[in-house]
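Service request form, structural biology core

Requester: graduate student, group of Dr. S.
Request type: structure prediction, single chain
Budget code: on file
Notes: please return the result as C-alpha cells.

Sequence provided:
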Amino acid sequence: MKITKEEIDAMSKEEKRKLLEMIWNSFSEYDENDYADDLPEETEEELQILHERLEEYRKDPSSAIMWEEAYKQLKKNMSNKLRISSRAFEDVEKKRDWYDEQSENAGARLWMS
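Core staff response, request fulfilled:
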C-alpha cells in the first residue's frame, strides 16, 4: 500500500491516529525468522534463578500465581500502558513450556507472589 503526503494531510485526526497505530503495531509483529539468531541463550545465573523458583514452587505451590494473573496485576499497577511484545511473550511461553516439562503445571506459575 502506498500513501502520499497529500492523502495523509487530507485525513481526519482519527484516520491519522488509526494509520499511525497500524504502522506502530507492524513493528511489534513477530516473525521468528527475524529473530531466530538474535535470541540470547540463558546465562548460568538466569538458569539458577529458574531452578530456584521451580524448587520454591515444588515446596509451596500456593506461593505462585498464574502468568495471566501476574500480567493483569502488572497492567493494573502500571501508570503507563503496558505492552509486552509478541517476541517477549513467546519467550515467556517457551520458559513456561520448559517448566511444564520439569513438573506438571509448573510453567503456568512462572511468577512468584
